[in-house]
């Protein structure tokens, strides 16, 4: 008589078994970041969001630095040198806690640190990268301006030569980490084209007033950068790049992290909805037992699963050196849009409780409204992909 074996049950949190695509080290990275978030962020983040602050940001930065998360995909200078997929998984775990915390890490590592690591001088790298990797110095990235977002080629911030020095004048807007940063990477128009400058905080003429009254990314420091006749020495300029190639290369790094990070927010809301539906009783049974609720949960799970498969695929391509900028646009456009839809659907399952900060759903919903816009709007990524598949540019 043949003994029958029972088929394993599907994992409701990973029905496609995507975890099987990850290496033991990748799983370990995700678990390490998840443990830090559970200990240092999750118990407090709803209160931070409600109060509109990220208290002890320097302490949190050093915790993240000790774990090796800051600039973790960069080589040397105290950076962990981990893979793109490992970095993506870290972003997903961070954003499962809060988009603002993931933004802190993304701006530090993929924008400010990457700009110095990729385009800076050896002196700039030695001066800033080890401290930034350890979280002992915080960086920000100044590209967006009050009236210039999707068209950075028309930025109004300028830099002119004065002897061997540079004089920088202008404004930057919506700058994560700005008012707490020790160093800002600022992009400006020059007679030679767009150039990047490493601006230490405290330089005369430089200030970073904090932006308040936000209803999204409230557990994040957001600032304006003001540069009034900021005099910088010749060695402050990033020497290895001229033109928009510089800032756009940095944005591509940050967008890649968002491909993964947005799924963390989606996963948190999906898990909250699944748990709530199993506990909330109406008409004598849990609402998880009703067909319409199950359809919502299944649709949310499908979109999350497809987004995660896309993220893993793009991560493998990035690790192989074959990832194209247009493919990053594909991931950013799809995953943020679907993550926001998942969060909105989760809110309907939680009913009135969905708007309470006792649950993570409304916080993630509000945060993703910002994530949908920054590092390239839906419209811009749509046009990037439109040009890629048709061969016709439609930006103007």
Automatic annotation (TrEMBL):
GO terms for molecular function: fatty-acyl-CoA binding; flavin adenine dinucleotide binding; glutaryl-CoA dehydrogenase activity. It holds the Pfam family Acyl-CoA_dh_M. One of its GO terms (biological process) is fatty acid beta-oxidation using acyl-CoA dehydrogenase. It comes from the Bacteria. SUPFAM superfamilies: Acyl-CoA dehydrogenase C-terminal domain-like, Acyl-CoA dehydrogenase NM domain-like. The keyword Zinc does not apply. Keywords: FAD, Flavoprotein, Oxidoreductase, Transit peptide. InterPro entries: Acyl-CoA_Oxase/DH_mid-dom (IPR006091), Acyl-CoA_Oxase/DH_mid-dom_sf (IPR046373), AcylCo_DH-like_C (IPR036250), AcylCo_DH/oxidase_C (IPR009075), AcylCoA_DH/ox_N (IPR013786), AcylCoA_DH/ox_N_sf (IPR037069), AcylCoA_DH/oxidase_NM_dom_sf (IPR009100), Glutaryl-CoA_DH_mitochondrial (IPR052033). Its cofactor is FAD. Belongs to the acyl-CoA dehydrogenase family. This is Glutaryl-CoA dehydrogenase.
């Amino acid at each position: 008589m043949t003994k029958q074996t029972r088929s394993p049950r599907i994992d409701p949190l990973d029905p496609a078994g995507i975890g099987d695509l990850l290496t033991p080290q990748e799983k370990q990275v995700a678990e390490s970041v998840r443990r830090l978030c559970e200990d240092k962020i999750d118990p407090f983040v709803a209160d931070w969001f409600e109060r509109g602050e990220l208290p002890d940001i320097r302490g949190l930065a050093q915790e993240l630095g000790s774990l090796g998360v800051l600039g973790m995909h960069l080589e040397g200078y105290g950076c962990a040198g981990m893979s793109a997929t490992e970095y993506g998984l870290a972003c997903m775990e961070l954003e499962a806690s809060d988009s603002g915390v993931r933004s802190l890490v993304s701006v530090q590592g993929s924008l400010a640190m990457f700009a110095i690591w990729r385009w800076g001088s050896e002196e700039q790298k030695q001066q800033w990268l080890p401290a930034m990797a350890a979280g002992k110095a915080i960086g920000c990235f100044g590209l967006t301006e009050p009236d210039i977002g999707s068209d950075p080629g028309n930025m109004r911030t300028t830099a002119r030569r004065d002897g061997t020095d540079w004089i920088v004048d202008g404004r930057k807007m919506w700058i994560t980490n700005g008012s707490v940063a020790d160093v800002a990477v600022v992009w400006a128009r020059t007679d030679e084209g767009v150039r990047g400058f490493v601006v230490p905080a405290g330089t005369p003429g430089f200030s970073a007033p904090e932006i308040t009254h936000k209803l999204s990314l409230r557990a994040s420091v957001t600032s304006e950068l003001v540069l009034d006749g900021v005099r910088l020495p010749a060695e402050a300029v990033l020497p290895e790049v001229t033109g928009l190639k510089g800032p756009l290369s940095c944005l591509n790094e940050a967008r890649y992290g968002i491909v993964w990070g947005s799924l963390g927010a989606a996963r948190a809301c999906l898990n909250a909805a699944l748990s709530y539906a199993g506990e909330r009783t109406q008409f004598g049974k849990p609402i998880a037992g009703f067909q319409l609720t199950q359809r919502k949960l299944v649709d949310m799970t499908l979109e999350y699963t497809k987004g995660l498969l896309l993220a893993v695929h793009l991560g493998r391509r990035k690790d192989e050196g074959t990832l194209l900028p247009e493919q990053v646009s594909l991931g950013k456009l799809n995953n943020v849009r679907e993550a926001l839809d998942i969060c909105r659907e989760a809110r309907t399952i939680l009913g009135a409780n969905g708007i309470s900060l006792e649950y993570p759903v409304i916080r993630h919903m509000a945060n993703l409204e910002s994530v949908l816009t920054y590092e390239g709007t839906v419209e811009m990524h749509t046009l990037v992909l439109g040009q890629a598949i048709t061969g016709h540019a439609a930006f103007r």
